[in-house]
Amino acid sequence: HRILDYAKSRGYRTVYLNLNELPYHDLDIFLQSFCVRVAQKLKLPNQLQNYWEDNFFTSEVKCSTYFEEYLLVSSESPLVLCLDNLERVFPHQHVAEGFLTLLRSWHENGQFYDSWKKLRLIVVYATEVYIELAINKSPFNVGYPVDLTDFSLEQVQNLARFYGLNLSVNSLQQLIAMVGGHPYLLQLAFSTLSKNSNITIEHLLETAPTESGIYRHHLRELLNNLMLHPNLLKAFKKLLTTTQAVRLDYKETYLLESLGLVRAIGNDCIPRSNLYREYFSNRLL
Question: For residue 92, which of 159, 31, 178 has the smallest C-alpha distance?
């Protein structure tokens, strides 16, 4: 949001769109909803019927035309479009392939066409799931990537204070020992503690790697992804049988790291946190 605030200060139009708001069962409906929501955020009337009735073009072409001939030219100001929770499209193969390829084409168009130079794309996604795309169709290998690194103890203390919590250094160190400096897992812990006075940090840590803990939904999603990809499941199990770093195939390492499950140490890797080691050891071994 700081980036969007900065863009506003420069006179840019800004749109923040949480992709959880859109339907994923059909690419055409997804792209129509996407166009309508962006127009709404820009406080522009819905002109979709003027661009979507032609059956000679694909949904992707219609969406691009709507942006190029309507949304982008409705003002002289550039448009900064922030798409949050992009990972929500990944499990929907047809929608994901169409939408992600479309975003890649818009980025490339911006290098050659004045109208597309007015679009600045920010895509925000977690690495809980992944999708394999041809390298020339993926939006993830262009632009400027920013990885959210693990928090330091000082940053964890600041985050706890932000949630109005007064936790001891020892308690924070125990939490870090369980989840590492994982920003999302720390935020979930502090948010839970701040909203539920009956939950103690001790109880949270005790139940963290179990099906009754606050991380159960996150852990189940990761487990489901491993079950859907037997090669990754087999590779990850190797890490759980030893406390030493293990050298895996480079692609397995890359994909497990993309899922957020492992941490690379040189050319070897280990489970990213004790939370993952304990939960998946109990589930898979």
Answer: 31
Q: Which residue has the tokens 């079950």?
A: 227
Looking at per-residue pLDDT, the higher value among 97 and 31 belongs to 31
Structural element, H or E, at residue 81: strand 79-84
- Same domain, yes or no: 191 and 268: no
pLDDT of 58 higher than 70:
yes
Q: pLDDT for 74-83, tens place per residue? A: 999 999 999 9
List, in order, residues 6 or more apart from 196 with CB less than 8 Å away.
none
- For residues 55 and 46, give the distance between their C-alpha atoms in angstroms, rounded to a whole number: 19
Same domain, yes or no: 7 and 122: yes
State the Cα–Cα distance between residues 6 and 144, nearest whole angstrom.
17
At 135, is the pLDDT very low, low, confident or very high (cuts 50, 70, 90)?
very low
Main-chain phi, psi angles of 61, to 5 degrees:
-65, -40
The C-alpha atoms of residue 157 and residue 151 are separated, in whole angstroms, by 10
Domain that includes residue 230, residue range: 217-284
**What pTM, to 2 d.p., does this model score?**
0.68
Angle value at C-alpha 265, between 204 and 205, nearest 5 degrees: 5
- List Cα–Cα distances, 215 to 7, 171, 208, 274, in angstroms: 35, 18, 6, 13
> Does pLDDT of 15 surpass 50?
yes
Same domain as 162, residue 98 = no
DSSP assignment letter at 246: B
Which residue's structure tokens are 């040189």? 266
Indicate whether 118 belongs to any domain: yes
177 with 49, same domain: the answer is no
